[in-house]
Structure formats: structure tokens, C-alpha cells
Amino acid sequence: MAESVKTAPKNLFSAKREEGQEAVDDVTRALPHAVGPEKSLLSTMLQDPQEYIGLAIEERLTAAHFYLPNHSTLFGFLIELFEAGNEVELVSLVQRLLDKGLLERVGGPGYLTELYTYAPSPGHFRHHLSHVKDKFTLRAIIRSSNEAVALAYETPDEVPELLDTVEQQFLSIRESAETIQAQTLKQTVEEVMRNFQMLLSKEKLSAGLSTGFEELDKKSGGLKPGEMFVVAARPSMGKTSFMMNIVENICLDQGKPCMVFSCEMSSAQLVQRLLFARAKFASSQLSRGYTPKKQELERVRNSSVQIMNSKLFIDDTAGISINELRAKARRKKRDEGIEFIAIDYLQLMKSRTKQAENSREREIAEISGGIKALAKELHIPILILAQLNRGPEGRTGKSMGVPRMSDLRESGSIEQDADLVGLLYRNKYYAENDEERAALEGKAELVLAKNRNGETGGIPLTFVEELMRFETGPPAEEFEG
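The structure assignment produced for this chain is given below.
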């Protein structure tokens, strides 16, 4: 709804149905505004432009915050003059407005003189500024609510998309209402020195969240807020295990709230994997009649307690849509302060927009773009698993089984949106005989094929199959002898 509309229904939901007829309350009233404080701000800026126009910029005041169009126009012009380094004083201001054809739009010379002589106390500037911002927020709430009502009538068949749009609009209002205060130089230096001390003491190896894989952390600098990390592989390579190893490290070892969306496995299956991998107990032994030792049972019990007491949230909705995932993630970020999201896996997600109905490539592009946008919106890293096509199986010689970024299904949008792309594979899977399979036992590699902010290359890993667990570095026997 256009900003110029100055009235709104008294009750947004006052429409009612009586005897088959709709009756709408036509009582209207002015949108929330604070003309006095607006005049006070402009008057103070005219009298001391260097101090108070600069302060308005620091406080992120914009022309849109002003209710009256002439106040909005004048403020925008004052900002333009200030940023161009031009002197702001009444006589030259009138002339400049006249030259630009804006003088009458701001109320004419008489109104400018009235503003200049309004003479409020400069000490009230911040107080009046908060009034103006609050009224702008109220107008934004009313405008978004009216738009939501209109959309609810106009698009009754696109309810999930409507919910996502409405939720995003109101979150945007909250974010715009919160002023981000810049750090002082002292605070910045103190933060740099704290990081320096942690680096010296080896407490912090990366700028982002540690994955638990040392070489990956060195190359990537850790998983940083706003980043999208795609881990792709062929089936049965251990994608989910690798993801849960990272979740374990971030959630259980670092104590960060995490959320996992599993489109393939149930929450019980994921927790079972996590629990026994952390306890380093191969549960498959039980089906062969194995009786656990006391120490093993103790490790399992301790792992279960750690997981129960952690802030790990699992959603196992099958075929979840990108809109539903974003809505759930926003709520968990708001309510629980989650700092990391993992998704298993991209090709099992859905986008229910009409544009995606007839194009799988378009659908994947919407999902990929939606996840990247969510990472930036929530300011947290997101890891998402993806499936590779059959390209690795078609290669021969030393390249047999080695994945490439072009093997990503519908890869164009994924490659573009991702900050990091890791291609996971295990050599044993492509062994041609038992002898070769035995020699490759445990060997795995994550090929960091894309790294927007660092180096790429292979990262050797060990896969402990009975525990469904990846560990950093090549198998231990390579270091022996």
C-alpha cells in the first residue's frame, strides 16, 4: 500500500458477514504520527546541521520516517546537502530549494522560517527522534496488516507462500526498528586483542564455528554467519554421518543451539546415530549377540545425558517446503537463539510456488536461493546436503569415483548460491576387488571445490564404518612404521 495513504480502517478485521451480506466498518482515522517531534527534529538540524544531521544519519533516520510529505522532502534534501559537503543555512537553503523546484513542496519560505524559529531544546533531540520512529513503526504495522488482509482475499490458493510473506514483513519491521549501535574504537581493539590471545593459546582456530575437522577449519576459517555450505556426494558415501559429526561438534562440544531438518531419516534414527557415534559404540554388535562392557554402557549413558541436555532441535518433516523451513527456522532463532542449521537434503525439499510446478531446475533454484537468503537473514551458517548425479561412476583410472562440482544435480544455482562446496567420497566404494577394498578401508576425502573466502583442495578423512563416524586426517595406520 502506498505511503501516501493517510487513513486506515478503524479495525483491520472489522469486515463481518450478516445474512449473506458483508458489511465493512467505514469509520476511518489518521495513521499514527507525531508532527511536533518531526518539526523539532528538522528545526534542530537547521540550527546546528553539523551536529544533528550527522546524529540523524548515525541513528538511521530516513525520509520515510516522516509522516508529512513536506517534512520528508526537506529531510531528504538536508541529507543530500550534508553528504555533498555543502553548508546548510537558511538563506542558501531557500535558494537551493527554489533552484531545484522544491521550495513549494516543503511549504515555501514562510514554513521554513517557522521551522527555523520553532526553537526546541537540542537536549530533546533523541527523545523526539524516538517518537518519530515509533510512529513510523506503527504505520508500518498497519500498512503490512492491510496488505496481509488484501492478499488473504486475493490469493486464497497460496496459503504457505502468504504466511511466509507476512511473517517476513513483520520480522523486517522489527529489524528496522532496532538501531544497531556502532562499536567504539576501544571496543573494537579489545575484541581484536581477545581474538589474538585466543589464537596464541590455540583456543580459537577459526573465525567461524569450528566443524571439528581441523583441516576443513583451516581452509574455510570455520562456518561463518550468513554462509551456505553445501556438502554433496553420491548415495552411501556418508553424507548424513558427516553432517551429524559437525552438528555434534557445534552443539554438544561447543554448546551452541542447533537445528537439523531431516527430509529422509526420522529424528529417532538421527539421534541413534549421534548417540552411538559419540559413545564410540557399534550398536550393530548387539544383533550378533554381543554383551556390552560396563565402560561401554557408561559411555552410552553419558552420551544420552549430553544429548538430552543439549539445545539440539530436529524437524523430520518429509518433503518440507522452503517456506515452511524458513518459518520454523525463524521461530527457533527468535525463541531459542539457534546458531547453526543443517539440512538433509536439498533435492528432497519442495518449493510450492506456481513458477516451480513445471520446472525442477526452477524449483531447485528457489530452494537454494531461499536457503542462502535465510542464512543471511538469521546471520548464521547453514549446512545443506545435496545429491550428485552419476558422473563419478563414469570416470576411469585415477579419476574413478572422484566427484566434480559439475556433478551436482541442477548445479547452476547451487554453485552460485553456495559459499562453500565440499564433495565427499570414499575410495573403497569404487574398489574392483577385495584386496583393493581392504587397502582402501577407512579412506575418505572431502574435496573443497569452492571456497568463496579461502583456498580449495582435498581434505583427507577417516571413515569408521561401524560407528558411522568421520574423523579428521587419513587412517591412523598411515602414520605408523
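Interim note for the steering committee: The CA atoms of residues 32 and 138 lie 7 Å apart. Residues 1-27, 476-481 have pLDDT under 50 and may be disordered.
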